Amino acid sequence: QVQLVESGGGLVQPGGSLRLSCAASGSIFSINGMAWYRQAPGKQRELVAAITSGGSTNYDDSVKGRFTISRDNAKNTVYLQMNSLKPEDTAVYYCKMLVGGHGGIFYNYWGQGTQVTVSS
To answer: Given 3-state DSSP classes, what are the helix, strand and coil percentages for the chain, each rounded to the nearest 5?
Structure first.
């Protein structure tokens, strides 16, 4: 069993910053890709940023230059540094990890979600 626990969401004014964290625990042998998604009210969940096991990253165009994804493999943790936040960044943010157990099979796991609200 693997659990992903997110933290760092909250209310911030436009132009402000937040740092999200997502830590995995449980029966983990290795973690391949890690990613952050978000879902705004009435909209589909969308990919915000992703990072491979080798550290390659990709971002949605709407966050390029403002958000940075990073990972700490020793801590099984992925981060999302969000700067210059805009009201349209308001959403529930979810982390996702592709986790392999000792049996060699990989599964996708999701965090519970953390609310980010950008408002004055």
So the answer is: 5, 60, 40
Cα 45 to Cα 10, 37, 103, 106, distances in angstroms: 19, 6, 30, 22
Residue range 12-25: average pLDDT? 98
**Token pair 């949605």 in the structure block, residue:** 60
d(CA 101, CA 109): 12
* 85-111 residue pLDDT tens: 999 999 999 999 999 987 888 999 999
Cα gap 66→83, rounded to integer Å: 5
**C-beta separation of 58 from 107 below 8 A:** no
